[in-house]
Amino acid sequence: MPESANNLDQIRDLLFGQQLDAYSHRFTQCGDRLGQIEESLSEFQGQMQTQLQQLDSTIDQELVNLNQGLENKLKHFSIASNNELAKIEQMLNGEMGSFKQELTSFQKDFAQQHSTMKGELEAIRGNLERELNMLKEDIATAWNSRFSETNDGKLAKDQLGKMLFEFSLKTRDEASFQNCPRTFKNKYKPN
Fold first, then answer.
1. In the chain, what is the straight-line distance between the N-terminal and C-terminal CA atoms, in Å?
2. Which of 34, 56, 59, 179 is 20 to 30 A from 16 via CA?
3. pLDDT digit string (tens) for 39-92?
4. Going by C-beta distance under 8 Å and a sequence separation of 6 or more, which residues neighbour residue 140?
5. 3-class secondary structure for the chain?
6. Spatial distance between the Cα atoms of 187 and 140, rounded to a whole number of angstroms
7. Whose CA is closest to 146, among 163, 169, 164, 171?
8. ∠ CA 90-96-97 to the nearest 5 degrees?
9. How far is CA 119 from the centre of its chain?
10. What are the tens digits of pLDDT across the range 124-177?
11. Chain centroid to CA 82: how far?
12. Contacting residues for 143 by C-beta, under 8 A, at least 6 apart
C-alpha cells in the first residue's frame, strides 16, 4: 500500500503539482500578508489605546481643574455673600436699635402728653360741670324767685315778658337747655 499511495502522490503531483504549488505559494503570501495586517492592526490598536488613555487623562485633568476652579469661585462667592450679609445684619441691627430708641422715646412722650392732656381735659370738664351746675342753680333760683313773686298765679304781661326775655338770654341755644334738670326740661321745653 505504501507504494500505491506513493504512486498516487506522484500522479497527483503530475496533474495538480503546479497548481498546488501556486496555491501553496499564494496561501503563504496571504498568510504573510494576513500576519502583516494583524501586526499593523495590533500596532494601530496599541496606538489607539495610548491615545485614548492620553485623552482620558487629559479630560480627567481638565475636569479636576474645572472642579477646583468652581470650588474656588463658590468659596469666594460664599465668603463675599457672608460678608455682605454680616454688613447688612449689622446695619439692620443698628437701624433697629435706633428705631427702637426713637419708638420708646415717642411712646414715653406720647404717654406723658396724653396724661397731661387727659388731666387738663378732666379739669376743664370739672370746671364746666361746676359752672353749668351753678348756672342751672342760678336759673332755677331766678325762675323760682320770679315765679314766687306771683303767688297768686296771675302774672302781668310785662313781668312774664321780662322773665322770658332773661330766660332766653341765659339759654340762647338748645345745648345749654339740654343740661337743665329733666323735670325743668319737661315742663318748659322750647318749641
1. 170
2. 34
3. 999 999 999 999 999 999 999 999 999 999 999 998 998 899 888 888 888 888
4. 181, 184
5. CHHHHHHHHHHHHHHHHHHHHHHHHHHHHHHHHHHHHHHHHHHHHHHHHHHHHHHHHHHHHHHHHHHHHHHHHHHHHHHHHHHHHHHHHHHHHHHHHHHHHHHHHHHHHHHHHHHHHHHHHHHHHHHHHHHHHHHHHHHHHHHHHHHHHCCCCCCCHHHHHHHHHHHHHHCCCHHHHHCCCHHHHHHCCCC
6. 13
7. 163
8. 90
9. 44
10. 988 888 888 888 888 778 767 766 655 455 567 777 777 778 777 776 765 555
11. 19
12. 163, 167
- Residue whose entry in the numeric block shows the C-alpha cell 415717642: 106
Q: Using the structure block, give the residue that is written with the C-alpha cell 334738670.
A: 181
In the block, which residue shows the cell 339740654? 178
Residue in the block written with cell 321780662:
162
